[in-house]
Sequence to fold (185 residues):
Amino acid sequence: MTVPPSLETARCILTVLRPEHAHLLLAYRQRNATHLAPWEPTRSTEDATLQDACQRAAARSAQGYADGDSVQFIAVDRQTQTMVAACNFTNIVRGPFQACYLGYSVGQDSQGQGLMREVVQAGMDYVFGTLGLHRIMANHMPSNVRSERLLRSLGFEREGYARAYLQIAGHWEDMVLNARINPQS
Fold:
């Protein structure tokens, strides 16, 4: 397996989530459970505990990276050494498509400080530059104005609207469909 990249931003180090980082993910999810709940799928009841869920997520992330299917970064604050955000590029498709999906989250204490933009930009630079993908797709709920602003600031363009697209917090939610094309393609 290739050594996963570490990317540096002004405030964070991005690294691919691996089993040795499960404790960071666990602490992030515990600190931000209420904050992130309206924007995420309901957690599976298959996981006995949140700790088990984080260990499984870290193992899946490492395997996804090894298989070339995903790059799931965690952003670790340089000063506190805590996870403050996540930036995931999943469902990587090669061949004539050369595309992936972007998902992200930022901790409640880091909102409104430009951190999510910093983290996603570093991740996009890696996906477009190193991986050579042509297209990144990202969707947001119509009510998530912060995500809409973030995606616009990163050069994403609205491509459509999908009704009852994803099950979020136990409900089928509409999504605004967005994409960014690699400027070097």
About this structure: The two ends are 28 Å apart (CA to CA). Residues 17 and 100 are 18 Å apart (CA to CA). The first strand starts at residue 6 and ends at 8.
